[in-house]
UniProtKB/TrEMBL annotation:
GO terms for biological process: modification of dendritic spine; negative regulation of Rac protein signal transduction; neurotransmitter receptor transport, endosome to postsynaptic membrane; regulation of actin cytoskeleton organization; regulation of dendritic spine morphogenesis; signal transduction. Keywords: Cell projection, Endosome, GTPase activation, Phosphoprotein, Synapse. This is Rho GTPase-activating protein 44. GTPase-activating protein (GAP) that stimulates the GTPase activity of Rho-type GTPases. Thereby, controls Rho-type GTPases cycling between their active GTP-bound and inactive GDP-bound states. Acts as a GAP at least for CDC42 and RAC1. In neurons, is involved in dendritic spine formation and synaptic plasticity in a specific RAC1-GAP activity. Limits the initiation of exploratory dendritic filopodia. Recruited to actin-patches that seed filopodia, binds specifically to plasma membrane sections that are deformed inward by acto-myosin mediated contractile forces. The gene is LOC115059697.
Length: 522
């Protein structure tokens, strides 16, 4: 009790400046003391944030951590979902494969978290909550011993002054001896504590490289985890892609033509063949085919059916306008027009040629530059449209009318202008491209064509019904000979610019004089 009183009095005197405070640590150790507090704060905050990054429960064994880990739960959910959907569905296969992958990833993540806990989080906790606090606790104890030493020294010197002795003479007597022993004992205790504290502080400084290695370990553990996870994901990706590629039901609307043909193993796009073969059976004499808009709901249903490869022919045979609308939508939704962006200028330049023979030859040159897949599908479509015009007296769809409603779906530019421009100059040029190709389909694409390519539909074979082609070159003739065929063998009629202008008026389209059907592009 007396010692505490003396300590408090000494502290009060030092506080108000009536007594000197002894500093027993060197300047270097005082700097270490300040650094201790900073390292403690940083280690504590890092430990807290790093612990929050772990998904699994900390401080438990592998089995318990695995059962409650979010990634393990996700994996189990996927596997259960796969069992519900079954292996016969693509989603079922994907869920099963992904569920197994997620489970393996979960095991890698659990191993990563356990290693991180052991090599990083726990050492950081010990540093911030054990090692540094112990040094700081020892520092506080040293401060208390220094205060005791200063207090004992003060009492001893006060005893010297009260005895009237000079500062060079030591007081004698029992009281003086007691005070001297108390002062020396306090100094000894302070020195022992100071030496121990100094050793601990210097040890802390020397071990900073060990503390830094915690963070090196963190990066190494993360790198190993991500490396294994990447290997696992890369090993499963080919299986996932294989499931996708071998799946029969592949969407086709809005997909590049080459991609659809490659995935489906077809030469003619499924929507084109399906719609053409159905129209050959039920729509050739339908008035306004491709012009009259179908029911929106019926069109949406048919497009969805074509997209998944399931088609009820009988259901749609009674609605040829829906079939025609589905074909137009497919052509319009292609990322690149069937006649390609690359050849856009070739087509437009060909349409601007005044001489009929040279114009047809330029259009033929552009046709022959089409990529094989585009050429095959364009030929298939033109042959069908040519056959459709054979019934123009009934369906009112002349080559000009067909070109008006289908042309903008076969060719457009990357940077489409305003609607006024598209409805006049550009559309006029496109109609001037499509109409002569339809009119002279058998010259552009000699020979017969089997519309029912896959054999899924009953459709007729296209034959040459155009009397103008009685003197056309043989389809067996090679390309060079065909190009050099006498000019008199080329088609005799092609729409002139003046005729094309008759299709357009200020408020919309008017039909050609040879047709009684008013056609509006949709």
């Amino acid at each position: 009790m007396k010692k505490q009183f003396n300590r408090m009095r000494q502290l009060a005197n030092q506080t108000v400046g009536r007594a000197e405070k002894t500093e027993v640590l060197s300047e270097d150790l005082l700097q270490v003391e300040k650094r201790l507090e900073l390292v403690k704060q940083v280690s504590h905050s890092t430990h807290k944030k790093l612990s929050a990054c772990l998904q699994g429960q900390q401080g438990v064994d592998v089995d318990k951590k695995s059962k409650k880990h979010p990634l393990t739960t996700l994996a189990q959910c996927m596997v259960d979902g796969a069992a519900v959907l079954g292996d016969e569905s693509l989603l079922g296969k994907m869920l099963k494969l992904c569920g197994e992958t997620q489970d393996k990833l979960a095991q890698e993540l659990i191993l990563f978290e356990l290693t991180t806990e052991r090599d990083v989080i726990e050492p950081l906790y010990d540093l911030a909550e054990v090692e540094i606090p112990n040094i700081q606790k020892q520092r506080k104890y040293l401060a208390k011993l220094v205060l005791d030493m200063d207090s004992a020294r003060t009492r001893f010197y006060q005893s010297t002054k009260s005895s009237g002795l000079s500062s060079n003479l030591q007081p004698t007597g029992a009281k003086a001896d007691h005070l001297r022993e108390e002062m020396e004992e306090a100094a000894n205790r302070m020195e022992i504590c100071r030496d121990q504290l100094s050793a601990d502080m210097y040890s802390f400084v020397a071990k900073e490289i060990d503390y830094a290695s915690y963070f090196q370990a963190l990066i190494e553990v993360q790198a190993e985890y991500h490396r294994k996870s990447l290997e696992l994901l890369q090993s499963v990706l080919p299986q996932i892609k294989a499931h996708q590629e071998t799946w029969v039901e592949k969407p086709c609307y809005g997909k590049p033509l080459e991609e659809h043909l490659a995935l489906s193993g077809r030469d003619i796009a499924f929507p084109i063949e399906a719609c053409v073969t159905m129209l050959l059976e039920c729509g050739m004499q339908e008035e306004g085919l491709f012009r009259i808009a179908p029911s929106a709901s019926k069109l949406k249903k048919l497009k969805a059916s074509l997209d998944c490869g399931v088609l009820d022919v009988q259901e749609y045979s009674a609605d040829p306008h829906a079939i025609a609308g589905a074909l137009k939508s497919y052509l319009r939704e292609l990322p690149e027009p069937l006649m390609t962006f690359e050849l856009y200028n070739n087509w437009i330049q060909a349409s601007n040629i005044q001489d009929q023979d040279r114009r047809l030859q330029a259009l033929l040159n552009a046709c022959e530059k089409l990529p094989p897949s585009n050429n095959n599908n364009f030929k298939y479509l033109i042959k069908f449209l040519s056959k459709l015009t054979e019934y123009q007296d009934v369906n009112k769809m002349t080559p000009g009318n067909i070109a008006i409603v289908l042309g903008p779906n076969l060719l457009w530019t990357h940077n489409e202008g305003n609607i006024t421009e598209m409805m006049t100059t550009v559309s006029l040029q496109i109609v001037g491209i499509i109409e002569p190709i339809i009119q002279h389909a058998d010259w552009f694409f000699p020979g017969e064509i089997e519309f029912n390519v896959t054999g899924n539909y009953g459709s007729p074979v296209h034959t040459n019904h155009n009397a103008n082609y009685s003197s056309m070159p043989s389809p067996d003739m090679d390309q060079m000979d065909r190009r050099q065929t006498d000019q008199s063998r080329r088609p005799l009629s092609v729409a002139t610019d003046n005729m094309m202008l008759e299709f357009y008026k200020k408020d919309g389209y008017d039909p050609p004089k040879t047709s009684s059907c008013s056609c509006v592009s949709t």
